[in-house]
Design a protein that fits this description.
alpha+beta, FAD/NAD(P)-binding domain, Polyamine Oxidase, Chain A, domain 2, five-stranded antiparallel β-sheet, 8 helices, 11 strands, elongated
């Protein structure tokens, strides 16, 4: 095994409090009761000058404009959208959801011990099972945390999760030494098991990063009452967090410009 510096990360930075802090900050600016959790949308239809958004529990929400921020393939497969342009639905079905069939592991320790040895916690591996590892410890370093993306195919990791965890533990000892054996907890989250994230089309093919899609994905539909703002619609870093932020901002700006 050899150790060598990784190339620069192009100004990469972490958000204090994680990406959830952005969602929480926006939510605080909304009226109480605005956000509804665990409310799956099953249909969107036009009615006079409004849209009617039908939920799984039978409730119906009325709105002038709707923005869908859900994986494009899932939107086509699980939401009945009235009079959706066939060209658009075709593009949506062809657009892979980046990371949809991936899994993530978080490994907790009492302290971020690797920092004491001058290590960043960043690993890139061709052996795995974690092909990429990052320092995930909180700002105050009250505990140590590493997270990594699992390189095993979905079928293999789901058939033998115990072996996967054991191999992750062995990999960390190889990379960070004996201290890495003092694991407090291993948390695995498999996006391929999430029916509202990963479609059968995502599972059927090898992972592929989406290219910048046509502007049709960034235009308004149903007389500019329906818009899409998931990361894969972005013309900047599609599929990534930056793309998600750009997609949301783009949709909001285009909607406001038409009022």
């Amino acid at each position: 095994m050899t150790r060598q510096p990784l190339p620069g990360q192009d100004g990469i930075a972490r958000l204090s409090g994680g990406p959830t802090s952005i969602v929480e900050a926006i939510e605080q600016r909304l009226e109480p009761g605005t956000v509804r959790l665990d409310s799956e949308v099953v249909a969107i239809e036009t009615k006079e000058n409004d849209l009617r958004v039908h939920l799984r529990d039978g409730a119906v929400a009325r709105c002038a404009t709707a923005i869908l921020a859900t994986p494009l393939r899932i939107a086509v497969e699980r939401i009945r959208i009235e009079a959706l342009d066939p060209r658009l639905s075709g593009v949506m079905l062809q657009t892979p959801t980046w990371m949809a069939q991936h899994a993530k592991a978080v490994i907790l320790f009492k302290t971020p011990f690797w920092r004491d040895r001058g290590l960043s916690g960043r690993v890139a591996s061709r052996i795995g099972p974690l092909v990429e590892i990052h320092d995930h410890s909180p700002e105050n370093a009250e505990l140590g945390a590493l997270f990594g993306f699992v390189g095993w195919p979905a079928k293999d990791r789901q058939q033998d999760p115990e072996t996967l965890e054991a191999e992750i533990r062995r990999q960390l000892v190889r990379c960070f030494g004996a201290d890495a054996a003092r694991v407090e907890r291993v948390i695995l989250h498999d996006w391929a098991l999430e029916p509202l994230i990963c479609s059968q089309a995502d599972i059927a093919k090898p992972p592929e990063h989406p290219d910048v899609g046509p502007d049709l994905l960034r235009q308004g539909h149903l007389d500019d009452r329906l818009w899409f703002a998931v990361s894969e619609t972005s013309d900047v870093s599609p599929g990534l967090i930056e793309g998600a932020l750009v997609a949301g901002q783009t949709a909001a700006q285009r909607i406001l410009s038409k009022r």
